[in-house]
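Exercise 3.2. Students should predict the tertiary structure of the chain below and write it as structure tokens, then compare their answer with the key that follows.

Predict this chain's 3D structure.
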Amino acid sequence: MKLNILDYNTGHAENIDRYISQRAMPQAGRVLANMEDFYTRIQAEATHVSGSLQDFNELFIHYYREVTVYHSVVLRNLKEELKPLLKPKKGEASLSEQGYDHIAKVYKLVKEFVLQSKTIVHLLDEVLVKEYNFPEISHQRQLMELQSDIKEMYFVQKNLCQLLKRWETDKNQHGLQTYYN
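Answer key:
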């Protein structure tokens, strides 16, 4: 234990930090940019769009806010919280003593966002089936591309959940092993 050979926190923190930097944040940023572009185009032609899109607009704005908060608050804060675990200094208490106690809370937060993404994908399916009288075919194509990006973000966040869950499982197992030793 003193040689940090069995240190599970640093390995998990590095994997999660790398995954957030390379996959989760760029994908969420791409979804935000596509949502902004799509919404701008729809609003520019608002005089041609029927009133049946009011519910769609409200849903769209709500999900945009959720993705914004998730991207700018949750992922960035998680990345900041992982920094001390990425660069352990000699002489400090071992990471196994310091611990990372709120892995389960972060996992639940990411899991909740995953469920919201799944819901929005299903709702976008319904919008595409009903064809909501979009003025141009390009809007439908752009909405399908946006749906594809959201599906990709869903799978990226689902993988992040698995990484967090694995960390929590290892942490619990490590605690039990320490207790029984």
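Discussion points: Helices lie at 8-44, 54-86, 95-98, 103-130, 137-180. The mean pLDDT is 80.
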